[in-house]
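About this split. The held-out portion is used to measure sequence recovery: a designer receives only the structure tokens and must propose an amino acid at every position. Recovery is the fraction of positions where the proposal matches the reference. Here is one held-out target exactly as it appears in the evaluation file.
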């Protein structure tokens, strides 16, 4: 099978979308499929043995590492026509979505659209209600033309359906259970210092500043893993925290497994891969009870959920685990058990089944 992966985000910018696409590429190559990546910006010419084509783009104002596509439907159609893929995998579409859908219709190529970024939620976060409505209209206009939309969790799938997106199915994210494993921990489990950490992009919508309510908890060390435009302001808000910068590979695995409690404060996560990686590493998660985290964290069993905006609730949940080592261990063990079967191999096998299904039976909306 020949798969064209058109993604809003790719290397050298690393985020959840990029990391998922990389896993899909590895799986497709290992399974003997052909692939080609189209993405805005100046990506490497190849990745995992797959050719990568950069599309015209501009940097997002205030965050130039994020590239916004300027490619037209005609340009995309010409690129696709050269490859003649059997199916298009459209990753986290928004700006690219409309042009890709028009190009796909012109070439009669089925599209599997993967919903992964809560753009309407981000618009609501910044209190721009008219933009929120426009964002949802654009999301629906893109996804209603896909043969299938894949949502990362059941909660997100229900939200898409409630806004009018048809043919939604759940496709979760996998986790590298070899890289993220309790055995990667490099600290003594009996260390009296309780390490509490956030792993992710340091952007306004992640609300990492909420960790400030944990600063005075006795015996707690705060760790912030990641990079982004908010790092400078966060270092002022969290002067006692240790900022590691962006970590990848074995360094990220060790740092994640060496946490005692992982915290996720962003209410607009459609899945939250960092939380799943912490769970695979045997670390309980305290997370805001919103979006995909509602499905990922089993409240009181694999971690704790707190109400959005309830910072005292966040503080109380972390304090509960910080003060009870055995509870942390029990929740961490349950977290590891809950995700250890979600290998990327099994998850990507299901993705290929979606490809095959849309190729076999076309459902072209009017």
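Reference sequence for scoring:
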């Amino acid at each position: 099978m020949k798969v064209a992966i058109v993604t809003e985000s790719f290397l050298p910018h690393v985020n959840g979308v990029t990391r998922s696409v990389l896993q899909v590429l590895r799986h497709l190559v290992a399974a003997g499929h052909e692939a080609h990546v189209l993405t805005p910006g100046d990506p490497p010419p190849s990745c995992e043995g797959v050719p990568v084509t950069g599309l015209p783009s501009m940097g997002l104002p205030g965050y130039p590492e994020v590239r916004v596509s300027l490619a037209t439907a005609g340009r995309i159609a010409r690129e696709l026509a050269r490859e003649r893929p059997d199916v298009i995998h459209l990753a986290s579409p928004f700006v690219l979505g409309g042009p890709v859908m028009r190009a796909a219709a012109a070439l009669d190529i089925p599209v599997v659209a993967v919903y992964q970024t809560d753009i309407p939620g981000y618009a609501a976060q910044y209190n721009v209600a008219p933009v929120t409505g426009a964002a949802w209209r654009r999301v629906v206009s893109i996804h209603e033309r896909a043969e299938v939309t894949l949502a990362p969790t059941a909660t997100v799938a229900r939200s898409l359906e409630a806004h009018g997106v048809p043919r939604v199915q759940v496709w979760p994210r996998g986790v590298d259970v070899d890289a993220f494993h309790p055995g990667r921990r490099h600290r003594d489990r009996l260390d009296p210092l309780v390490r509490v950490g956030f792993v992710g992009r340091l952007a306004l919508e992640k609300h990492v500043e909420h960790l400030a309510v944990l600063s005075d908890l006795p015996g707690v060390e705060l760790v912030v893993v990641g990079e982004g435009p908010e790092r400078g302001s966060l270092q002022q808000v969290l002067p006692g925290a240790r900022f590691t910068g962006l970590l990848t590979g074995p360094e990220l695995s060790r740092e994640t497994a060496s946490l005692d409690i992982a915290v996720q404060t962003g209410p607009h996560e459609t899945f939250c891969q960092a939380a799943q990686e912490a769970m695979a590493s045997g670390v309980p998660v305290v997370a805001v009870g919103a979006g995909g985290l509602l499905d990922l964290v089993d409240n009181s069993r694999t971690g704790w959920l707190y109400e959005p905006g309830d910072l005292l609730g966040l503080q109380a949940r972390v304090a509960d685990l910080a003060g009870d080592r055995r509870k942390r261990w029990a929740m961490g063990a349950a977290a590891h058990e809950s995700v250890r079967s979600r290998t990327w191999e099994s998850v990507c096998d299901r993705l290929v089944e979606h490809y095959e299904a849309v190729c076999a039976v076309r459902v072209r909306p009017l």
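Annotator remark: Residues 182-339 form a domain with the Rossmann fold fold (CATH 3.40.50.2000).
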